[in-house]
Amino acid sequence: MSRRNRGNAGTTYVNNVRGPTSALTSFLNERGIRRANPAPAPPPVATPPENDNNNDDEPTSPQHQAASPSSSSSTPAPAFSASRPTRAARLTRGRNLPTRSTNVSQSNEADGVDDDSDSDNSDDDSSDSDNKNLIPIAISASTTRAVRATRSRVIAVASSSSSSSSNAVASSSNASSSTAKAKAAASKKRPRKKDASDDSDDEDFHDITGHISRSNFSHKGRMPQGSNKIVFCSRCRARFTIKAGTTPAVDEDDGGLLCPTCAGTGSPGPSKNALPKAKPVKRARRKAQKAEIECQIPSLQDLCIQKIANSIEDVEAFGDISDLSLDKICKIISRNRSLNADTLQLFLDARHSELILYDCTDITAIGLQNIAQFCPNLRSLKLKLCGRITNEVMDYYIEHLTKLTSLMLIGPILILEHTYIKLFETVCERFEKFELKGSSRFSLKAIKALCDNCPNITHLRLGDCNLMDDGWLEPIAGLTKLKSLRIRNPEPDKLTTPAVVKLIQAVGSGLEELELKGCNGLTDEVLVDAIRPSCVRVERLNLSGCEELTTEGVETLFKDWNVNPGLSYVNLENCVMLKDEALMAVTEHSGATLEEVNLSGMDEITKDALQTLTRCVNLMELDASWVRAMDDDIMEQLVEAAPRLAKVTVWGDHRLTECCSSRKGLKIVGREGDYVDLRFL
Q: Which residue intervals define the domain F-box/LRR-repeat protein 15-like leucin rich repeat in the entry (predicted)?
């Protein structure tokens, strides 16, 4: 498909590229995004041979002499240059055409000469005056063909008359030699004005439709128009926000705008209030951020733990070490992929009642079996990425771990159905917590064995189980002692709304935590008919990825929900249909109790809704990634309203600048332009 006619009928683009376009090009064309300077380099124009009279500054055009022979003796002819074509020629080749008089255009067409040859490239004043009369128009296909035909005739005339050009040049050069020399001397003395090809900000480089190419805000209503403005500081080059109705400080040296830090004030204000301050060195803000991070010197204990973890291969025994320090070492060596069957021996002790291994990828089946052999008193065992665990290892756990009450397995792809059934029949009533993720062999029979033999289960967490469907929810409804229920990422359309409603109505009265992450087929009936009347004690609610939930359903859930005292954790990540009213209802109901809020991906939220987060005075962690309305004003209000706020994640929030409000102990993750030192993360 030709790029010249894609999506814009009657519009001619400058780059004559033919062929299939990419997805990015199609997206940019649909949104009306154009380059600021789409004009390609002009092709070389035929030039006549130079004369022998040392008149290098004014070569004469044979075409022009043929068109107007009477004027060849009085005035120098316009020049053709292969390296620098005339201004009208560049404008004719695709976008803006000069408005010439009708008589001139008709006479040129009659002589077979293009209008482009009437422009004198050395006369800058006339070029600037012509630029004011240019108007952006859309060129039709017929006009384009006519321009091409005229240009072809011009080149043909130049080629045919090349033999006689030397005689014409010789006759005219003697008559105009004095004028040419004077004009050449004047052109050398005065500087050349900027041409259209030199100035990217010229109006000629606007889009062919007459508008400057720019990317607009994707949705309406996210940000009030004309509220704030983001500019760059003239000293430290950091971005900062100018609030509506205020005037930023001005640098006395160069007249540029100053951010609050460089101006010495807490917020942008009039320049007369700016304190006199010496000009800092270049990029002082980045250096200050780096110094602030590096000044967070770790404790001696952390340094020792880091040293031990880096030299774990040379350590023979830990000796007397706390469980917290042991867990830190295990995290570090798991991140470094140093946890194997040999280093595992350092974490095995008969005195341990809880063991967490964060990466069992390099641990063999024999090494996993040693866990039950050297730690027979374990009550809680958590194995992550345990793809090498086999049925024989699980049988060994069942025989030797006689005090086990909690088990978490992530990625046990080799364990079969009958091994799970044997485990549940053995542990029976002492089993309290069970978590399973990433298993394609955990079946309906296994979940029935769990619910029949382990009635005291309080925490049940199932995620990424390929065989999960509505049949699993019926036996789970018999676990009346459940306090935490997590169902993550079932197969699409495997869990339906009526089955989930029955489950929550059966076990919801005792639930303190409910997670339905990735259940994208659920509708508002789960909120209105199940969670609202049943989950009166719930404190943590995770509905991330439930794309079918609407703003009306969330409003109905939280409005006048008096039986619930308030939530401490709310996750609405990627609930793309929710708008301002949903967040307002959440903060109105649970503003005094909320400690963690996740709004990532809620692109419809505007600034008015984000301002209601100031009700959350106990807020400790906020994830507002890809919420484009987040800006410096909202951050400033949150810092003032929530003194316990410790972490804010703002990936993709381009309105949040480096000069936004912060304080000691507050970590802002994902802000553009921040210096990040991975050593202390």
A: 399-615
